[in-house]
């Protein structure tokens, strides 16, 4: 796994594309694993703060409970208007670590009472962007994994 900062260091151009997509819209889709192993998708928001990628959650929300039990996740950030695909969409997968330091939770989640929300730092095992090529006649898929660099594929 790698931190966001390590991702930026290893793959700066791809990290910039992923960040552009993360910053383009407020809402993302988060996939977690239920107790029985089946997938659950939830809406979430992300923040890039202090070189780390973060998500928050309402207290005892199902996505928070899922991540506490099994920290694996996948996150999808896509254009708000699917017809406007120029920047592509971004996907990140990895593990989430719950942070319980109340000062940090308040800094990133707001000034609710102690124990009123969850905070998770996301460590990355993979990041990708799918977008059109310049001619708009094929998809370009760029995938990064820690220590492996960026792999680029094009599909017509």
Write the layout of secondary structure elements.
Blueprint: H1 4-10, H2 12-24, E1 28-33, E2 39-44, E3 46-49, E4 52-58, H3 62-69, E5 72-77, E6 89-98, H4 102-109, E7 117-132, E8 139-145, E9 149-155
Antiparallel strand pairs: 1-2, 1-5, 3-4, 4-7, 5-6, 6-7, 7-8, 8-9
Helix pairs in contact: 1-2
Task: List key phrases describing it.
Pnp Oxidase, Chain A, about 160 residues, alpha+beta
How would you explain this protein's 3D organization?
Helix content is 23%, strand content 44%. By secondary structure, it is of the alpha+beta class. The longest helix has 13 residues, at 12-24. The chain is globular, with a radius of gyration of 16 Å. It has helices at 4-10, 12-24, 62-69, 102-109, and strands at residues 28-33, 39-44, 46-49, 52-58, 72-77, 89-98, 117-132, 139-145, 149-155. The model has no long low-confidence stretch (mean pLDDT 92). The chain has a single domain (4-129), classed as Electron Transport, Fmn-binding Protein, Chain A (Pnp Oxidase, Chain A, Roll), CATH 2.30.110. α1 (4-10) crosses α2 (12-24). Strands 1, 2, 3, 4, 5, 6, 7, 8 and 9 form a nine-stranded antiparallel beta sheet that branches. β1 and β2 form a beta hairpin.
Short description:
The chain is α+β, with helices and mostly antiparallel strands and 156 residues long. 23% of the residues lie in helices and 44% in strands.
Tell me the helix content. Answer: 10-25%
Q: Please tell me the total number of domains.
A: 1
- Kindly name the structural category: alpha+beta
Mean pLDDT across all residues, rounded? 92
Largest sheet: 9 strands, antiparallel
Poorly predicted segments:
none
Radius of gyration: 16 Å
Shape: globular
Give the CATH class. Answer: Mainly Beta
Distance linking N and C termini: 32 Å
CATH fold-level topology: Pnp Oxidase, Chain A
Q: Strand content of the residues, in percent?
A: 35-45%
CATH superfamily: Electron Transport, Fmn-binding Protein, Chain A
Number of continuous helical runs: 4
- Element-level helix/strand string: HHEEEEHEEHEEE
Number of strands: 9
CATH architecture: Roll
